[in-house]
Amino acid sequence: MPISEQGYSHWQGTFVERRWPWWPITRLGIRLAFKRKFFKFIFSVALGPAMLFSAGVYVSERLEDFQSMLRGPSRFLEVNPAYFKSYFTNEPMLFMMVIVLVLAGAGLICDDLKYNSLQLYFSRPLRKRDYFFGKMFTLFFFLFLMTLIPGLLFVLLKIIFAGSFKFLAEYPWLPLSVIAFSILITLFFAFYTLLISSLSKNRRYVSILLFLVYVFSDMFFGIFYGIFHNPYFSLLSIRGNILQVGAFFFRVKAPFSVPWIYSFLVLAAFCVVSGLVLKKKIRGVEVIK
Amino acid sequence: MNIELRDIRFNYGKITALDGVDLALGEGACGLLGPNGAGKSTLLRILLGFLRPARGEGRVLGYDIQKEQFSIRRFVGYMPEDECLIPGMDAVTFTSYFGEMSGMPRQEAMKRAHDVLFYVGLGEARYRLLETYSAGMKQRLKLAQALVHDPKLLFLDEPTSNLDPQGRNEILDLIKDISSKKDIQVLISSHILTDIEYTCSFVVILNKGRVAAQGDINALKEIQFSLYEVKTKGENEGFLKTLKDKGCRLEETEDRMMKIYLPANLPRHEIFRAAAEENVQIRYFVKSRTSLEDLFAKTVGVD
To answer: Label partner for A248 (CA 20 to 30 A): which of A45, B85, B169, B208?
Structure first.
């Protein structure tokens, strides 16, 4: 009998209790992002800095071999905490992160609001926190591939190319800094994206907003700093705050004479406020209108 | 009983949305009716465990509505009124995804998604992007995602909204098939009374947060009142006033035909007595079948 004539049949299986109920949401988010060819291209470009810095680690161990190709001081090829800091906080890298967030994260909540999918999610045995974790870990996946994984890879490559643990003995705290700072900026950008994604039902507006808030925060800092010459205006800038906190985590000189903790508190406060707004915006009870 | 509620009260601030709601629903299809603001949505929210009643207790499929909401949602299928989809997905992935969200193992959810999509008539279109679906197809898709985990109880919110007559009939036939042959109890919230009459044998009518009527539709129509269609000759004014005074509800149709809703305690010969008193000839007198519309109008007090 063809399947179309079989009609409805009962399912004989048993339900499973998932340890991570958010995992299907994360998997779907990743899958939907990679379905778009443009995203694949952009994401591969976004991994460019990681490739470049990996090559830098190699070159730093083979300076003599590359002497003829190098012009100027070779100090920038010294793999030290400043090298890591410049990887994590360089402008093209942060910009690429924002572009990836625009492409992979703008629709995460906004599309669910637009197409009423929340009703389908919350009419199932799913907690609100599992929904958020699912969406957040989608962003974690992409951001960790740009931060945590390359950061740890640099450490590993340095050890392999040097053939000794001297680097690790010199900076034993560096892997922890890489992990902590990766988690911090990933967490911040994940909250940043989810917050803005929940503010509109239009993915285009969300994309523009994600981009503009990042760019304008830096622009406002530049304008105010230019007028008042007060470094505390760096607290207005997303990038400025990341630079400040990054300088602390990698024990290098901060770019602005503002205590790093202020920048850290600004980023943390943003995450808390985002969490509260998201909690208010996404309500299971709205499932039935 | 699949749904049992006792003395449920719920307030939104100072506004009482439900007050003293008692329900007992067993097998089969049940229609949930009521004008806007009657408390239908609040009742569905309470049944799915989204709202905690201020008073009363209840069980859905044997699970406590205040403590075991997750178990309820696992065994209940919900088809929302609004258009629901996830852009960029096809029907198979979409349906299996929500099967997984309900707790089905991934592979079984995928297999089941195919079966359910064939059942609702989307078999051929199951690999198409959801954005390209017509309104009727989206409606079927919503039904498929509600059925994928083989629920014991199905909540359908306006299942035929935005459908053309043919699409509407097809969805209604599916609902009838599910409720009559598949051991799945269906609770349909709808404004379209003919849909309820076609698919359900049981009805709950809510009005101003209270259960105005509940029971077997045919029995309710008999109990609540009798309807007669009457044509008369002569001056009707006094005749109509007398009937109104006796508690009848009257409706005049275009061809001078009158519909007289007789209260349960009033015998039909009172119509003839009133006609005799007012010197009106009765030229046509037929006991009419009451429709659900008549019952609804009578119960909630609207024309």
So the answer is: A45
